[in-house]
Amino acid sequence: MKKQPIGVFDSGLGGLTILNALRRELPKEDLIYFGDTANVPYGSKSKEAVTRFSLAIARFLESQHVKLIIVACNTASAQALTELRKQISVPVMGVIEPGAEKAVSTTRNGRIAVLGTEGTIRSNAYPKAILKRAPKMRVTQQACALFVPLVEENWGKKPAAKLIAQTYLTPIQQSGADTVILGCTHYPILKPVISQILGKRVTLVDSADTLAEAARRFLLQSGQACSTGKGRVQVYASDDPTRFKRLAGYLLADKIGAVRLKKLDL
Amino acid sequence: MKKQPIGVFDSGLGGLTILNALRRELPKEDLIYFGDTANVPYGSKSKEAVTRFSLAIARFLESQHVKLIIVACNTASAQALTELRKQISVPVMGVIEPGAEKAVSTTRNGRIAVLGTEGTIRSNAYPKAILKRAPKMRVTQQACALFVPLVEENWGKKPAAKLIAQTYLTPIQQSGADTVILGCTHYPILKPVISQILGKRVTLVDSADTLAEAARRFLLQSGQACSTGKGRVQVYASDDPTRFKRLAGYLLADKIGAVRLKKLDL
Predict the structure, then answer these.
(1) Quick check: A146 and B145 CB within 8 A?
(2) ipTM above 0.95, yes or no
(3) Which domains does chain B have, with CATH numbers?
(4) Tens digits of residue pLDDT in B144-181
(5) Contact A164 B167 (CB under 8 A)
(6) Parallel/antiparallel/unpaired status of strands B68-71 and B92-93
């Protein structure tokens, strides 16, 4: 049991930021990462489509005998988690709950803002998770459709990034939130420009570290943690791995090695 | 034979600009539009994936007894046309050839620039089509990954659009091109900001009108034109039609009526 890998998936490359956190937190675990580059992005697609893609990936990860599946994608966590837990036999963890938990424990003025894709925002998954923990919180949401392409174009440091971020963040500034959830795995790449606009008094919450801690706790508590050796990482993509390898450089300092092509059965 | 519809497809909504031109040019023809909103965008995906999506759509259109298939998507025209023509029994027209033809007949100084998605630019389909017609032309290409999300966010008139366009267009200005192909169906929506940057001496070529003319000629020459009645338009999308309907408003002044969901067999 202890030698089984952990499966991690995302709509594309963004989840590599989560993979990174897992490698730091759980260096002895084998990890399998799946990036659904044939169907990316999930953020602008329907709940039905996102659920169909997510189930196909989870079934592939199950076939690889994973002991735990981590949904690194915020949109898939927001829209497909319930269905995944119904249909998949291994435990499934998403990024919404850890992010909400961290935001609730971070805010001092009870005002939290959420930045995410269209799908994540429309699902209201973050406000629901926050209000379940702390019913008096005030939550503001903002969909930021241009952030993902901005990161994938590697334009995070260009003037256009600042102008785009300013437009999305104006309602957040007006809300008075002191804690802002970066509710998409690509957004941590834009931390410098987001921080610059929001200022030092606003804390940016990125679920990667909280999720990795939660995964470690889960494995320890369930007696499934791997205690020896150095974990290996395998990476799969559902479309041509060439572009994946190139873009991975913007998201992950560590090298990821070979990326294998695995087409999904949809 | 004459009552058969024409099939038009695109990765998503962009092809509605082509549908519009076809309705103007061929008002008596029945048209079936298919937007592959479950798999959009094609621009960042591999040739293999784009071909697979395109074949599935073309087979659906064949099942609807179309007499002609028009590939409204530049990326699919650039990457999948050869394979579509091999595997599909009805004639297939793409947008690259008409666009290249129009650019060659427009330029006065022999310098043409092409703006497109990553996939279209990487395929070199436009330079090949241009140089086949006029081997002495000088062709400059520029991938503009942020243009599609910019249009879909309806930000064409915001300052960010100008800043983004300026970044992409600087090498085009340096090339001295007097003719610029808008090599993606979304880009005509950005004509105002692109024109403002490039100035009046640069002609913007959009393949919609040329393609519609070519389709009309083809139908007349092959005796397949419909000469009576008013054409009907049917619209299908491969993912939830709600978002499609909303975004269609940015791309198409005319109303498109009901949008039906049709999942693809991939």
Answers:
(1) no
(2) no
(3) 6-94+209-261 (3.40.50.1860), 96-207 (3.40.50.1860)
(4) 999 999 998 999 999 999 999 999 999 999 999 999 99
(5) no
(6) parallel
